[in-house]
Amino acid sequence: MYRVEMIPKTSTNLDIIGPWTDSGRVDNSADGEYVFEQAEVVTVNNGVVFVSSRGNSYWYNLSDFYRVKAIKLGDNGQLEL
Questions:
Q1: Residue 78 lies in a domain
Q2: Neighbour count for residue 20 (Cβ, 10 Å)
Q3: Residue 18, exposed/middle/buried by CB under 10 A (0-12, 13-18, 19+)?
């Protein structure tokens, strides 16, 4: 499992928030960061970020973000040190 934190560029923030909430995800962007709390898969290939979370798949253009960070979680769902 992974925790995926994504900080979008200001110019693309409004383009992301609509589809984010329309797909049933919680609007957790108040601090300017979108978070997948428990993603099964996260990959980056040729500038495309792929996230699989809760049985759904999402693709994002890496250039739309200042930062994309994937944090590996341990078996208990906590940060793996």
A1: no
A2: 18
A3: exposed
In whole angstroms, give the CA distance from residue 18 to residue 25: 10
DSSP 34-68: EEEEEESEEEEETTEEEEEETTEEEEEEGGGEEEE
d(CA 80, CA 60): 25
DSSP code for 32: S
- pLDDT tens for each residue of 31-76: 778 889 889 999 999 999 999 998 999 999 999 999 999 999 877 6
Domain that holds residue 17: 2-72
